[in-house]
Design a protein that fits this description.
EFMT1 methyltransferase, Rossmann fold, single chain, alpha/beta, globular, Mlase_EEF1AKMT1/ZCCHC4, seven-stranded mixed beta sheet, about 210 residues
Length: about 210
């Protein structure tokens, strides 16, 4: 009689150890959430999903971009975050501040943020709810999920539809020419960092006099 275990793929001890470590970390994080009066808006409260090409900014970068957005939007300003949830979360941490923000995002886990969440697929750049009026946002912050001209071009249609004028784009340094071509934005001195290092050099681009230079 064949040994029943033979056809069950065995994980290497290395993989098993890594998995156990991962689950342990997750349990600890879940534990922290309950014990610390967990803030649903803190970065990392929703895990990165690499299959959706998600990479969260470091805390410092998200804070810096959120601060810039508030300044650029002005008092009572309207801010749209396209595929930039960690900036949205930072903005929401500033509870009761004088601005309005919404998040356009493909990842439906962000629907936990209620009416401010708008499902967004860059393949359908103008498939937006009717209450998102054209040119109704003082600033649009966007971080297209892929480093491709097609993705940038389609996201650019959404940005141009929503913004009154100001644009803050975060994408790879390799996209500099396309960013200028599709959105008229220039690279800033500020270097955005991610919570995990990315292989591609990442930069910020703006089309107005920002505090990021």
């Amino acid at each position: 009689k064949m040994d029943d275990d033979d056809d069950i793929p065995q994980l290497s001890s290395h993989t098993l150890a890594a998995l156990q470590e991962f689950y342990l970390e997750q349990q600890q994080r879940e534990g922290m959430k309950t014990s610390h009066g967990f803030n649903q808006y803190s970065i990392g409260s929703i895990e990165e999903d690499w299959q959706l090409s998600q990479f969260w900014y470091s805390d410092e970068t998200a804070s810096c971009l959120a601060k810039e957005a508030v300044l650029a939007a002005g008092k009572g300003g309207r801010i749209a975050c396209i595929s930039a949830p960690s900036v949205y979360q930072k903005l929401k941490e500033q509870d009761g501040e004088d601005f309005f923000v919404c998040i356009l995002e493909y990842d439906r886990r962000f629907s936990m943020y209620g009416e401010e969440f708008i499902f967004y697929d860059y393949n359908h750049p103008l498939d937006l709810p009717e209450n998102l009026l054209p040119h109704s946002f003082d600033i649009v912050i966007a971080d297209p999920p892929y480093l491709s001209e097609e993705c940038l071009q389609k996201t650019a249609e959404t940005i141009k539809y929503l913004t009154k004028g100001k644009i803050l784009l975060c994408t790879g340094a390799v996209m500099e020419e396309q960013a200028a071509k599709h959105l008229g934005v220039k690279m800033c001195k500020f270097i955005p960092k991610h919570s995990r290092n990315l292989a591609n050099e990442f930069r910020c681009y703006v089309n107005y006099a920002s505090g990021l230079d």
